[in-house]
């Protein structure tokens, strides 16, 4: 399929092909580079970073524990309308970044966001 796309676009117009890092894409990229000597396959940098963060979460106990806690906090807040309204009041309308299903980078973005709003969250949860 990738070869057909290169044909359609024109080999002279394609220098690099960037795909996911899955084994099937890697193999397809290598096959394409063998056939078309002026074309380069490169794994997606974002996907590489996401896989690295996935490994951190799976293999570093403190990361796994902290991310699980962050997910619990955001799930708790976003599943209760009253808390969500309070969050928006205490953070002046800003939202927390919530974890996505397949992207491990969002786990770290969520932790960063929780850290950024740490004071506001502590004030919110200790307020009357």
TrEMBL record:
Signal peptide start and end residues: none
Q: Which domain of life does the protein's organism represent?
A: Eukaryota
One matching Pfam family, short form?
DUF659
Task: List, for all copies, the residue spans of the domain called DUF659.
Answer: 1-73
In Swiss-Prot or TrEMBL terms, this protein is called DUF659 domain-containing protein
């Amino acid at each position: 399929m990738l070869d057909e796309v290169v044909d359609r676009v024109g080999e002279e117009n394609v220098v690099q092909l960037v795909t996911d890092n899955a084994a099937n894409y890697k193999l397809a990229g290598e096959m394409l580079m063998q056939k078309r000597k002026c074309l380069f396959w490169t794994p997606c940098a974002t996907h590489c970073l996401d896989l690295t963060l996935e490994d951190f979460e799976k293999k570093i106990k403190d990361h796994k524990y902290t991310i699980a806690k962050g997910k619990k906090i955001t799930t708790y807040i976003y599943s209760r309308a009253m808390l969500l309204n309070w969050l928006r009041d205490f953070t002046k309308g800003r939202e927390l970044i919530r974890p996505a299903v397949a992207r491990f980078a969002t786990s770290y973005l969520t932790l960063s966001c929780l850290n950024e709003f740490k004071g506001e969250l502590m004030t919110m949860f200790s307020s009357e």
